[in-house]
Write a structure and sequence with these properties.
By secondary structure, the chain is α+β, with helices and mostly antiparallel strands. It is globular and about 45 Å long. It is built from 9 helices and 5 strands; from the N terminus they run βββαββαααααααα. A 5-stranded mixed beta barrel has the order 1-2-3-5-4. The mean pLDDT is about 85.
Length: about 200
């Protein structure tokens, strides 16, 4: 089974990307949250992979963080939820919000996700409640952006907690335009948030 792919990003769209790993092109299905952190084409990227094998196909699902992959795997273990629906869930709302909706039993929010009706939302809550506490996707290390990783490393050297640094840097990368995500800008903005 393929668990991790690291290679050059050849092409990407909102639901998939193509990775060149030593001359072999792998098509990987991804959620929007992973698309948002992918680098520019021709740059190196590492994705956590879930491999789904069926009689007629081998499908690769890719994620920017290990926790996002774990959440995906929890989702597909729910009866009636396949890989495509699990990707819809991860694309429709941030993973932290999804975990909060499960914990609070928020059927209404979950029902708004494309492909998830009231019954599926209720099933998700029943089968996942209590299984997602140790997942905090927002605290995953920044991926796909070397400036973000460098900024996170610098802030950790200054003595800030790793999980707080990763949450802050990931939030800034999601909010700022790509051309403003330099090491200096990220450190400056993160320091302002971490000190208040």
């Amino acid at each position: 089974m393929i668990g991790l792919l690291s290679g050059k990003l050849i092409d990407k769209d909102f639901s998939s990307c193509l990775l060149d790993v030593n001359g072999v092109g792998f098509e990987v299905l991804i959620p929007l949250s992973t698309f948002d952190v992918l680098p520019l084409n021709e740059e190196k990227v590492t994705l956590h992979i879930h491999t789904a094998v069926r009689e007629d196909a081998i499908t690769l699902f890719g994620f920017a963080s290990r926790d996002e992959k774990k959440l995906f795997q929890q989702l597909i273990n729910v009866s009636g939820v396949g890989g495509k629906l699990a990707l819809n869930v991860l694309s429709a709302m941030p993973a932290a919000n999804f975990c909060a909706a499960i914990a609070s039993g928020d059927v209404k929010s979950l029902s708004r996700i494309n492909g998830v009706g009231k019954r599926t939302a209720e099933r998700l809550i029943v089968e996942l409640k209590g299984k997602l506490e140790n997942l905090d996707p927002a605290a995953a290390p920044p991926t796909g952006n070397s400036d973000a990783a460098d900024a996170a490393a610098a802030l950790e050297q200054l003595g800030y907690r790793k999980d707080a640094v990763n949450k802050t840097i990931n939030a800034l990368v999601a909010e700022l335009p790509p051309n403003e995500c330099t090491v200096e800008n990220l450190i400056r903005a993160a320091l302002m948030r971490l000190n208040f």
